[in-house]
Amino acid sequence: MGAKRQRIGVMGGTFDPIHHGHLVAASEVAAKFDLDEVVFVPTGQPWQKSGTNVSDSEHRYLMTVIATASNPRFTVSRVDVDREGPTYTIDTLRDLHRLRPNSELFFITGADAMAQIMSWKDVDELWSLAHFVGVTRPGHELNSMGRKDVSLLEVPAMAISSTDCRARVKNALPVWYLVPDGVVQYIAKHRLYRSASDSEKGNPEGA
Ligand code: ATP
Ligand code: MG
């Protein structure tokens, strides 16, 4: 009782792999909204995105842990990874709300994801669970779609996507400096994002 409510950012994503666009967005929102913590929440399995398979959730979870480990305000939650079936943001927010009853949640999304959220059917319940913060992302237009309960924040432009990182690894192009060093090494160690024939041939340091 009487304790200050914690202000907690929630950064949901597939994180396949996590990259510096995610980390900069979280860091900027944390600074601007005076957050005590940002919880990164990798989505569960199975989740088909654009017809392609997503990496095993344990790989995505571990890369997220590696990428956030050095920041004392960043943490990673397994609520979506441990829940059966596809991830819906409403479930993520309900679970975090239950686990952190004394906190105020700030759900962080890039401009592309924000547009999708607005089209969901359970959108009204989302507003009761969290504030929404939309951040700019190169190539996507950011707007609050007329909602006054959505905050918009311009963050340094990071023209990085996980899709591009995966394509780079597949084509033997570097992902250094697009993703944290530990994530580059994790991708190489576990031979993620290679075509099946590459994995068999073996090319341990080729990230
Ligand atoms: P993919 O290409 O596989 O969709 P992604 O780069 O979009 O990957 P996600 O895991 O889908 O990454 O995104 C998680 C969240 O981070 C989303 O809200 C997304 O809009 C946001 N985000 C991703 N990349 C950036 C970026 N470069 N700048 C700002 N926000 C970003
Ligand atoms: Mg995406």
From TrEMBL:
GO molecular function, one term: nicotinate-nucleotide adenylyltransferase activity
Pathway(s) the chain acts in: Cofactor biosynthesis; NAD(+) biosynthesis; deamido-NAD(+) from nicotinate D-ribonucleotide: step 1/1
Pfam families: CTP_transf_like
Annotated Gene3D superfamilies: HUPs
Keywords, ordered alphabetically: ATP-binding, NAD, Nucleotide-binding, Nucleotidyltransferase, Pyridine nucleotide biosynthesis, Transferase
EC number(s) recorded for this UniProt protein: 2.7.7.18
Major enzyme class: transferase
Single Gene Ontology BP annotation: NAD+ biosynthetic process
Annotated CDD domains: NMNAT
UniProt KW Flavoprotein keyword: no
Similarity comment text for this entry: Belongs to the NadD family.
Free-text function comment from the UniProt entry: Catalyzes the reversible adenylation of nicotinate mononucleotide (NaMN) to nicotinic acid adenine dinucleotide (NaAD).
Entry protein name: Probable nicotinate-nucleotide adenylyltransferase
Organism: Neomicrococcus lactis
Gene transcribed to yield this protein: nadD
